[in-house]
Amino acid sequence: MFPHKFRTLLTIFLAISPALLDQSVSEPDSHWEAKRRLLREKVRRMFYHAYDNYMTHAFPHDELRPLTKTYTDSLSELGNLKLEHLPQDYNGSALTLIESLSSLIILGNNTEFEKAVLWLSENLKFDVDARINLFECNIRVLGGLVSAHILATESTNRLVPGSYKNELLFLAKDLGERFLPAFDTPTGLPYAWINLKYGLTADETTETSTSGCGSLILEMGTLSRLTGDPRFESAALRALRKLWSMRSSLNLLGTTLDVETGEWIEHSSGIGAGVDSFYEYLFKAYILFGKEDYWRMFHSAYLAVQKYFRHGPWYHEADMRTGKATYWQLTSLQAFWPGLQVLVGDIAAANSTHREFVHVWKKFGVLPERYLLDHQMVHPTEKYYPLRPELAESTFYLYQATKDPWYIEVGESMVNSLNLYTKVKGGFASVRDVTTMQLEDHQHSFFLAETCKYLYLLFDDQFLVNQNYVFTTEGHPLPVMRDWQERLPETFIPTNWTFVKTDERTRRVSAMSLQLCPALSTPSHGQRMESACHVPDARGNHRCLTDEDCGIDSTSCRRRSCSMAGYCGLWLFL
Ligand code: DMJ
């Protein structure tokens, strides 16, 4: 038998490494390859327009104000909607530079990467009197640093040999240690805010969000694995387990909670703001660390989302206690979900939700922050588009999984819209109102960390040729390494799977060459199913959850997701 969790792990690898496919079967049409090349260069120019302007007008401050060509020290403002307790004497942490590091490597600019690493090594300090949001600082700064550290060390080509002495890792460890006092609560759930210099302040709010305390494990786990210091991973894992223990009988969570009492404050939730990356991290932690627990939590949580939040291709919010729908709104942040579904193996469902988002993007030219599904109109006070990456991210995953050129066209129209509406002399500006395309003086760091990166990766296969990565919620790549995986029992290795051994090392093999695609052709292949909505029962039989339960009908649940282009994937262990 082919255990379900193993199949899912397999699917992940299948979905994220298309470039390793048997080229003879999956060679895309040359017209599309030429188009991809052109678009790749267009995105490269976009990245450098944003980056060069930041470096000229804003560095070493946090983010660029592209309309006035000035800067903002916004790390201390992220997540602080009312802009309370702002620091008096904080001069930035080169946030956009840190966020650009992994993108520079993906673009192949090792020279600039090396310069940036050198500057950060000599100048970045976290001993500053700034109250920061733990979640934001974790995904942007800690994530940017640990990812860049790995990229700096993983290949001799990255940096001049001997020039890098783990400085980014020392910085990351220093930052991680400054996070730890936030976890000192009766519940183990961390405070949302911490002062980098002074730690926890006396009158700090005890309110945080589900994603605020449930999406720390990738970065803090990686920090522990790199330093050998278990405190970071333990703290993040303890918080995650506590959060999961607070789920309702329907396996739903709320959006906000109290870290001292462990009580929910906001019981309504969905897959967007305040919750999104919680789901993402359960599954990605399973990919990265291979721990069974992450899969169990994710699987229950995912099925509950599909059952209670989904309405056709859309996702609304619901009360965690009753499962009753609360708000019928599409939010721009939800657009990451189809990308996650690709990793899970629910490609048909991912495609149908993605199409709806593309439809809204095309209607306005960009995605409004909030769109009222019941009234088919933009939310009156959330009309903005701050250059968010989520739709580009899902488009990238769907293209990798299907090789369907339609996704290239979607990417092209996104590139064109961004250049048409948001490009200004001094960089790329956020849209204040998608109905008028009035701009706002802010270039968010995630435009360089994510939006440009996912668009570039949509048009480029190079980065994924030799290595498999999990992308954090901020788009920072972390390599999937066998050493970090909890050892899988031998029984989980399917007996009919061919590992080709060369020099005692497992060589990557193409699923195509193993004729795994299409899988429906024989009954035995029919057993290899991808969808998380496919549930093996205790007797070793298999069933598909119904459309109502999971949004996947029984046919596509049991079908491998092979595209017309023949993309199916491959198995690899690194
Ligand atoms: C990013 O900081 C991350 O993707 C986060 O998970 C959600 N919001 C922004 C981008 O929209």
How does this structure look, described?
- The active site is at residues 136, 276, 369, 390.
- Its EC number is 3.2.1.-.
- It is an enzyme of class 3 (hydrolase).
- Its cofactor is Ca(2+).
- The chain is of the alpha+beta class.
- The chain is built from 20 helices and 26 strands.
- Strand 19 and strand 20 form a beta hairpin.
- The radius of gyration is 23 Å and the shape is globular.
- The model is unreliable at 1-26, 488-529 and 560-574 (pLDDT under 50).
- Bound molecules: 1-deoxymannojirimycin.
- 1-deoxymannojirimycin binds at residues 139, 277, 333, 388-390, 446, 450, 473-474.
Beginning-to-end CA distance, first to last residue:
24 Å
The portion of residues forming beta strands comes to: 5-15%
Multimeric status of the protein: single chain
- Helix-residue proportion: 40-55%
Please state the structural category.
alpha+beta
Number of separate domains: 1
Bound molecules: 1-deoxymannojirimycin
Number of strands: 26
The assigned CATH architecture is Alpha/alpha barrel
Biggest pleated sheet: 3 strands, antiparallel
Output the radius of gyration: 23 Å
* CATH topology annotation: Glycosyltransferase
Average pLDDT reading? 84
Number of discrete helical segments: 20
CATH class wording: Mainly Alpha
Envelope shape: globular
Please mark out the parts with pLDDT under 50 across 5 or more consecutive residues, or reply none: 1-26, 488-529, 560-574
Give the strand order, joined by hyphens, for the main sheet: 5-6-7
Topology:
Layout: H1 4-16, H2 23-26, H3 30-57, E1 63-65, E2 70-72, H4 95-106, H5 110-123, E3 131-133, H6 134-154, H7 167-179, E4 193-195, E5 207-209, H8 210-214, H9 217-227, H10 231-245, E6 256-258, E7 264-266, E8 268-269, H11 276-289, H12 292-308, E9 310-311, E10 314-315, E11 318-319, E12 329-331, H13 337-344, H14 347-364, E13 370-372, E14 377-378, H15 390-402, H16 406-422, E15 423-424, E16 427-428, E17 430-433, E18 438-440, H17 446-458, E19 469-471, E20 477-479, E21 500-502, E22 505-507, E23 509-510, H18 523-526, E24 534-536, E25 542-544, H19 547-550, H20 554-557, E26 570-571
Antiparallel strand pairs: 1-2, 3-4, 5-6, 6-7, 8-11, 9-10, 12-13, 13-14, 15-16, 17-18, 19-20, 21-22, 23-26, 24-25
Helix pairs in contact: 3-16, 3-17, 4-5, 4-6, 4-17, 6-7, 6-9, 7-9, 9-10, 11-12, 13-14, 13-15, 14-15, 15-16, 15-17
Residues 139, 277, 333, 388-390, 446, 450, 473-474 line the site of 1-deoxymannojirimycin (DMJ).
